Each structure stands twice: as structure tokens, then as C-alpha cells.
From TrEMBL:
Residues 20-320 form the Beta-lactamase-related domain. It comes from Nonomuraea fuscirosea. Residues 348-425 form the DUF7586 domain. Pfam families: Beta-lactamase, DUF7586. PANTHER family: D-ALANYL-D-ALANINE CARBOXYPEPTIDASE, D-ALANYL-D-ALANINE-CARBOXYPEPTIDASE/ENDOPEPTIDASE AMPH. This is CubicO group peptidase (Beta-lactamase class C family). The lineage of its organism: Bacteria, Bacillati, Actinomycetota, Actinomycetes, Streptosporangiales.
């Protein structure tokens, strides 16, 4: 399966072997995806009497959440719901009706992390109706929208929402709309052979204890699924943008936008709409981790580089936390991606005439023409507001990112009107309606 060079494969396998040996993992698999294809797979340890393979199943825990979130976003794209809709509009009768769908997706609803039941990861689940009856105002730990607070309960609610709107179960909707179209046929709610057994490794001796496995029922959308390295590699390719028509690329990009972050001097982790986010080593990663009794798994995608990475292990705890970023570092060191070849492209003369130097008052900006008739406006000195724009049918341009995301740019021959801000060819052009003392400037 490896499509990287032998020295690269050896370095990657050594890092995997060190993780498995030093962290005492019964079995461990990892894979790297590049440009939609698995370019490296490695497995160490034993599942039964054999080494794990790309077809060996492991529990993936909360990675389940990211898959459920895709179905919710498909419903949004179809017009069946809006992200700002209160839950009551689509799932009436709960005591959580004022929470919005976006808040539930982004873990900003303020909802409790765990359900008011026995330890749900280790005990048989209860039906959704019973769970919803138990979850009331006392399970709200923070004001909705105030802060990021991870909630397994929130995704149990979203799974029930998916089932209600699709007229089936969350699992059947997920399989029909996501798993089957992506070819993820070995992703299931209960294990099938060959699968790893979940273990807890004794902290002071090299012995293992088998961990429980059961049907979580109402809590299943928060962490029920089992999968294989092969299937999870396909999921990593999807997160990188190889969506196979399952989700609009713009919607997937929306899911990666930070909605809440882990507070600190500079955020390194956060959450979008159903996707975990991380910034580390200059990389912006999106995906999800998973943890259930006896199992750990994580999948990260770096869409800017078209690369994804994952691991699956049958241990309750003890992993280093750096395995996947180390694997990416090794790939970058041994086989860095070559930049795409630059090629000239034809340009609309009218658009070409707009490019060049513009001024926001005295501050100089550069307007550049991008592929597909896009525009980029950014300060010459690199500091300040910068945004990209895409053309609209009415002759305007819509902001994609930065300060002007969602705002309208209206170009003219002698000025740019950007949501009432006027950019001119000369600083403080006396003929342009620019506030800031144009008369004094030219006095």
C-alpha cells in the first residue's frame, strides 16, 4: 500500500514502532493520505495472532460526531433547517428548545458534557425519549453562546434531530448519505471480524484488562462507530476536500471555521461545526479525536496541503499525543510537496485595469487578480485588513474572508466602494467622498 519512498516509509514505521513500544499499545495502526490516496500505512502489535491490517476494525469514538455533523449540514444545504434555528422548531417537546443547531454543532450551547445517566461509555444506553426527558435546564452549565464547552449530550440530541427530519434513524441516514457514497462500507455501529479488542493496560505491569463494549443507544451519535484504517483514510481524504458530491466544498470549508476556541494566550485548539481544529507547527488541522473504553483514534486533515493522517489503537490511554504531527513532519522532511507549476492565464482587460495600487485614505493597498476572476485586496505593508473576493452575477464581488467576509465590493474605474469605504487611486483624492479631512490634506 505504501507509495512513499523506502527511506520515508522506514522513518514513518520507526516512529509508529516507537509509539507502540514505549506507550505499550496492544496494537496500533496509522496511515497518511495525500491528494486523495493512501500513500502509507503501518501497523504494529497484535490483534489475536496477527499484525493489524488496513481492514482491522477499531472503535473510533467521537469521530462519529463529525460524520453526524455532515448530515446536519446537508440538511442545512437542502433548506430543511437553518443553523440559527432553535431546536424547538425541528425537535419540539424538549426542555432544550431555545438552543440553536449551530450552538449544538460547535459545543457552544452550554450543555453538560455527559448525560444524567450512569457512566454512558461503560453501561448500556437508554432510548432517546428517555434521555431527552432527563435533560433539562439543570444540564445547562453555561449561558448559550458564552463559551466552548464540549458536550456529548449535544450530539445525542443532533442524532435524534437527524432521525426526525429524515424519517429514519441517524445511522441509516448517515450510511445512505455519507458512508456508502464515500465507500466506507466497513464503518459500523458494532464490531465485525477482524476487529481489535479494547484493552486497558496496567500502569505498573505489562498486563491488559479487556474493556466493555455495548450499544450506547441514544448516546450513539456521540461515539458509537467502529471503522478501519482503510475507511478512516477515505474520511481523511473527504476532510481534505475529496467530497465525491457528499457535501459542497464551501460547506466543508464553513465547518472548518472556528466557532469556539480553547482559551489561552494564543489558541491552539478549537471547534468548528462538528469538526475539531488545531494549530500546531504552522499547520491548520481539522478533524476529530475519539476515545472509548479500550480505544483511541484521531484523524487530521490539512486541506491546504492535500494531506491527511490518522491513527487507531486499542488502548484506553497512554498515547504520546504527538504521533500524527510527527508523522506529518517526517513526510515533509523526506518528501516535501512540490509547489504547483505557475502558468499564465488569460485575463479580462477590464479586470486587469482594476489591478494595482489603491488607497484607503493615506494607506496603500494592492488589488490583485486571482484565478477564476477572483480579486485580492491587501495592504502593501502586510498589516491591516485583507480579503479575497469572488464575482457575483450582478457585477459586484463578495468578500470571502478577513474583515470583509460577506461584504460587497463595487469596483468603478476611479474608485472602489467596499461596504461604504472608498478606495481611490491617489491618497485622499479630493474628488472622492472620503472622510478624514481631504481639504486639510491638500491645503
Amino acid at each position: 500500500m505504501s507509495q512513499v519512498g523506502q527511506p520515508t516509509a522506514r522513518a514513518l514505521m520507526r516512529r509508529l514502532a516507537v509509539e507502540q513500544a514505549e506507550c505499550r499499545v496492544p496494537s496500533l495502526t496509522a496511515a497518511i493520505v495525500r491528494d486523495g490516496r493512501t500513500v502509507w500505512f503501518g501497523g504494529r502489535g497484535r490483534v489475536g495472532d496477527a499484525a493489524p491490517t488496513a481492514a482491522t476494525q477499531y472503535r473510533i469514538g467521537s469521530i462519529t460526531k463529525s460524520m453526524v455533523a455532515v448530515v446536519v449540514m446537508r440538511l442545512r444545504d437542502e433548506g430543511a433547517l437553518r443553523l440559527n434555528d432553535p431546536l424547538e422548531e425541528h425537535l419540539p417537546g424538549t426542555r432544550l428548545g431555545h438552543l440553536t443547531i449551530a450552538q449544538l454543532l460547535s459545543h457552544t450551547a452550554g450543555l453538560t458534557a455527559e448525560p444524567p445517566t450512569a457512566w454512558w461509555e461503560r453501561t448500556p444506553g437508554i432510548p432517546a425519549a428517555d434521555l431527552l426527558d432527563r435533560v433539562g435546564p439543570e444540564e445547562l452549565k453555561h449561558r448559550p453562546g458564552r463559551r466552548f464547552h464540549y458536550s456529548n449530550v449535544g450530539f445525542a440530541v443532533l442524532g435524534e434531530l437527524v432521525g426526525r427530519l429524515r424519517g429514519t434513524t441517524w445511522l441509516k441516514a448517515l450510511r445512505a448519505e455519507v458512508l456508502d457514497p464515500l465507500g466506507m462500507h466497513d464503518t459500523t455501529t458494532r464490531p465485525r471480524l477482524p476487529h481489535a479488542t479494547g484493552y486497558a493496560v496496567h500502569p505498573w505491569a505489562d498486563v491488559v484488562l479487556e474493556e466493555p463494549e455495548h450499544d450506547a443507544d441514544a448516546m450513539a451519535p456521540a461515539g458509537q462507530l467502529w471503522s478501519t484504517p482503510h475507511d478512516l483514510a477515505r474520511w481523511a481524504a473527504f476532510l481534505c476536500g475529496d467530497s465525491e458530491g457528499v457535501l459542497c466544498p464551501d460547506t466543508l470549508a464553513e465547518m472548518r471555521e472556528p466557532a469556539g476556541v480553547v482559551d489561552g494566550d494564543a489558541w491552539t485548539g478549537g471547534f468548528g461545526l462538528g469538526l475539531q481544529l488545531a494549530r500546531t507547527g504552522g499547520r491548520r488541522l481539522s478533524g476529530h479525536s475519539g476515545s472509548m473504553p479500550g480505544f483511541l483514534a484521531t484523524v487530521w486533515a490539512q486541506p491546504s496541503e492535500g494531506v491527511g493522517v490518522l491513527f487507531m489503537a486499542n488502548t484506553t490511554s497512554g498515547m504520546s499525543g504527538t504521533l500524527l504531527t510527527d508523522l506529518l513532519d517526517i513526510l515533509d522532511e523526506h518528501e516535501p510537496r512540490l509547489p504547483d507549476e505557475w502558468r499564465p492565464v488569460p485575463a479580462d482587460p477590464d479586470l486587469l485595469a482594476l489591478t494595482g495600487l489603491w488607497h484607503w485614505g493615506p494607506k496603500p493597498y494592492a488589488l490583485r487578480l486571482l484565478p477564476d476572476r477572483g480579486l485580492s485586496l491587501e495592504p502593501i505593508d502586510g498589516g491591516g485588513r485583507a480579503s479575497r473576493f469572488v464575482p457575483q452575477d450582478d457585477g459586484t464581488w463578495l468578500g470571502l474572508d478577513g474583515y470583509y467576509a460577506g461584504e460587497t465590493l463595487r469596483p468603478a474605474a476611479d474608485h472602489l466602494d467596499l461596504n461604504t469605504f472608498i478606495f481611490t487611486r491617489e491618497p485622499y483624492d479630493p474628488a472622492a467622498p472620503v472622510p478624514g479631512g481631504a481639504g486639510d490634506w491638500y491645503a
